[in-house]
Recover the amino acids of this structure.
């Protein structure tokens, strides 16, 4: 089975992202707007269960943190992806790095926190759409992230939550 680890932002930020994704992102119907912490990887059903159990403890070691989306950017010329840029924070960077150490993996790309709003665009489409969107003001206030999610991919290509991991220790 294919797994991934993500943060889902607030409904307000998801709605803002989806207003563009429905037009420019062919993955719109497959997964809600998200920040990828760990790119998709293969695991058996048993490995997924073990990982979910371990991640519940791992989450206790990280405190909730604030997240701020602040502009629209692009990965061009590397690829024609348009995204909402998320402020780099020490807490987010630490969560990403610790997650990769914890899962004994190395990220394929440098960590650039973002929410994809357009992808698989031709050069001309990218140029035209990005030219318009880079002037859009991202007017979403800072939000608190207190959880992340282990996802799995269904046969139809869509993603669904396998386990939700809360950050910080639960008050008892």
């Amino acid at each position: 089975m294919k797994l991934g680890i993500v943060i889902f932002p607030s409904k307000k930020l998801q709605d803002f992202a989806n207003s563009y994704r429905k037009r420019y992102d062919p993955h719109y119907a497959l997964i809600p707007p998200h920040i990828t912490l760990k790119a998709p990887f293969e695991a058996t059903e048993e490995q997924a269960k073990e990982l979910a159990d371990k991640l519940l403890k791992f989450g206790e070691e990280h405190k909730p943190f604030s997240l701020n989306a602040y502009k629209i950017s692009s990965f061009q010329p590397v690829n024609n992806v348009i995204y909402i840029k998320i402020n780099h924070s020490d807490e987010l960077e630490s969560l990403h790095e610790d997650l990769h150490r914890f899962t004994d993996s190395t990220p394929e790309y440098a960590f650039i926190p973002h929410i994809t709003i357009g992808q698989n665009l031709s050069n001309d489409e990218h140029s035209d759409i990005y030219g318009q969107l880079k002037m859009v003001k991202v007017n979403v206030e800072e939000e608190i992230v207190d959880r992340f999610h282990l996802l799995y991919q269904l046969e139809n290509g869509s993603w669904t939550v396998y386990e939700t991991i809360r950050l910080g220790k639960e008050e008892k």
Summary: The chain has a mean pLDDT of 94. Residues 2-166 form a domain with the Cyclic Phosphodiesterase; Chain: A, fold (CATH 3.90.1140.10). The first strand starts at residue 2 and ends at 7.
